[in-house]
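Exercise 7. Given the encoded structure of a 132-residue chain, write a plausible sequence.
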């Protein structure tokens, strides 16, 4: 597909749909949603609960056409390591909010691309999640 008209022909721009990385989509959010139901759910989870952990990798090498979150890519890798440490810190915060030894069982990466992380950073992230 070399032209915008090709994309339009296949229906790529004629529908209002949630962005790829947004679930639940932003239009489902409301002022009535707050942390209280989440805290209740976390405190009532049992040890055998299957908890998924989603984390966002907001880095691309070049402009991504699948969502509206970025206007360009990155050539600098300096922020990646500190970002991984921040994700691990936030995951640990969430882990502490659960009772009964419940922890994340299934990590999910979304948005940018996890392949932008070096093998050592990806290893740090996944092993770090195992340690939480």
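Solution.
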């Amino acid at each position: 597909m070399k032209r915008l008209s090709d994309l339009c022909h296949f229906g790529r721009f004629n529908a209002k749909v949630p962005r790829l990385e947004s679930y639940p989509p932003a239009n489902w959010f409301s002022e009535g949603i707050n942390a209280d139901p989440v805290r209740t759910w976390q405190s009532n989870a049992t040890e055998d609960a299957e908890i998924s952990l989603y984390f966002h990798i907001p880095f691309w090498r070049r402009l991504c056409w699948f969502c509206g979150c970025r206007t360009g890519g990155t050539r600098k890798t300096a922020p990646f390591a500190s970002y991984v440490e921040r994700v691990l810190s936030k995951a640990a915060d969430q882990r502490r909010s659960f009772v009964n030894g419940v922890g994340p069982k299934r990590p999910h990466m979304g948005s940018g691309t996890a392949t932008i992380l070096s093998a050592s950073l990806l290893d740090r992230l996944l092993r770090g999640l195992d340690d939480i």
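Remark. Strands lie at 51-57, 104-111. Students should compare their own answers with the one above.
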